[in-house]
Design goal:
Strand order of the largest sheet: 4-5-6-3-7-8
Shape: globular
Helix content: 25-40%
Radius of gyration: 18 Å
Distance between the termini: 29 Å
Largest sheet: 6 strands, mixed
Number of strands: 8
Number of helices: 7
Order of helices and strands: EEEHEHHHEHEEEHH
Length: about 230
């Protein structure tokens, strides 16, 4: 278990802290999930951990070189092919730069439905892929980089249920490799199918920390959306 302790951050000219003495335990055996309203400070927290926002403090015993951070607005040209993107990531990670997906170092670790998908999209331009296919490809490929920590900012936004399941399985796969995984999401129902540890950030503070079942119980509802609403309005 690693812990972010007493994290404080205020943007210039702001009248209040965006993050106000935030302490966030992170578990290497679960998918760590950060919830919060739009503008709650989730991305700010990720930016501080990864050094995107400059800080004099080190927040985790993990160097920024050992962190993969996939932001919401990662720009990849829509005219390059899926195979080119995969080869780029493989080149960064010192992996085999394969001509066909079957030659990838991690191809055999993909589930059959994923092997079929990567073969289908291999020669397609990224702009021709569905949102779900593109996000799955990005998450899968960067997950092949051998790092200690992986941060994904809303990786399942605007994707179909099938792609969402595939993406969450990639998160589970990283956890099973003893990697530290931290994500944010607004798709709360997807959390029922993964072993996760939830933290809820509201008004600069962590107001809940626990399992999915504890989140529902303390929120007083079987619906995660209604439980979320109960937490932020109490």
């Amino acid at each position: 278990m690693l812990t972010l302790e007493n994290l404080i951050f205020r943007y210039p000219k702001a009248t209040a802290n965006t993050l106000d003495h935030v302490t966030l335990p992170l578990c290497e055996k679960k998918v760590n999930v950060l919830l919060g309203m739009n503008g709650a400070g989730k991305t700010t927290l990720f930016d501080l951990i990864t050094g995107v926002l400059p800080s004099k403090r080190t927040y985790l015993n993990v160097t920024t070189e050992q962190i993969v951070y996939q932001t919401q607005g990662t720009y990849i040209s829509p005219v390059i092919r899926a195979s080119d993107f995969v080869r780029l990531i493989c080149g960064i990670g010192g992996l085999t730069i394969a001509k066909q997906p079957e030659g990838l170092d991690h191809y055999s670790a993909l589930e059959p439905v994923e092997q079929k998908l990567i073969s289908k999209i291999w020669k397609m331009k990224l702009g021709a892929l569905s949102v779900g296919e593109r996000r799955w490809l990005f998450v899968t490929a960067v997950g092949w980089l051998d790092r200690e920590m992986y941060i994904f900012d809303e990786p399942t936004t605007a994707v179909d249920p099938s792609s969402r399941i595939k993406i969450m399985r990639r998160m589970d796969s990283l956890v099973k490799q003893s990697k530290l995984v931290l994500i944010s999401t607004h798709q709360l129902h997807e959390l029922q199918d993964i072993d996760c540890l939830i933290s809820l950030l509201h008004e600069g503070k962590i107001i809940f920390h626990g399992s999915y079942d504890q989140f529902l119980n303390q929120g007083g509802s079987d619906s995660p959306d209604r439980a979320f609403e109960a937490f932020i309005t109490c």
